[in-house]
Amino acid sequence: MPLKKLTDVGDITITEKAIEEIAGYAATHCYGVVGMCEKSKAEVLKRVFGGESLRKGIKVSCRDGAVSIEIHIKVSYGVNIKALCENVKTDITYAVETMTQTKVKNVTVCVDDIVVNK
């Protein structure tokens, strides 16, 4: 369900896909985040046939004027996972609230993979 804002000059509609892009951009720019993980088998097929996307591994739901975000990430071996997840939550919340002027209800960060760099 897209997010709708009523203004003096007209209506603004922000889709969940747009919010997923914002969240994906913010997350991938956090130190220690290597990439995103697929959240479903359909996304695995999209990756095989379509390429990478910033929205991969992110689920957004908009209800009652607030946004909830679930993100699945890969992290680099050796980073403090708790600190990294807090940083990802903070960065996503700031980016989404700043760009959409909408309250972020919660951000759930799921660490699905740890990547060892050789």
Pick out its properties.
alpha+beta; Alpha-Beta Plaits; 4-stranded mixed beta sheet; two-stranded antiparallel sheet; 6 strands; 36% helix
Global structural class: alpha+beta
Total tally of structural domains: 1
- Please give the number of β-strands: 6
What does the average pLDDT come to?
A: 87
What gyration radius follows from the Cα positions, in whole Å?
15 Å
Output the number of helix runs. Answer: 3
Q: What level of helicity do the residues show?
A: 25-40%
Task: State the distance separating the first and last CA atoms.
Answer: 43 Å
Content of β-strand: 35-45%
**Level-1 CATH class name:** Alpha Beta
| Helix-strand pattern | EEHEHEEHE
Describe this structure in words.
By secondary structure, this protein is of the alpha+beta class. It has one domain (15-115): Cation efflux protein, cytoplasmic domain (Alpha-Beta Plaits), CATH 3.30.70.1350. The protein is built from three helices and six strands. The strands form two sheets. Strands 3, 4, 5 and 6 form a four-stranded mixed beta sheet that branches. Strands 1-2 form a two-stranded antiparallel ribbon. Strand 4 and strand 5 form a beta hairpin. Helix 1 crosses helix 3 (81-100). It is elongated, with a radius of gyration of 15 Å.
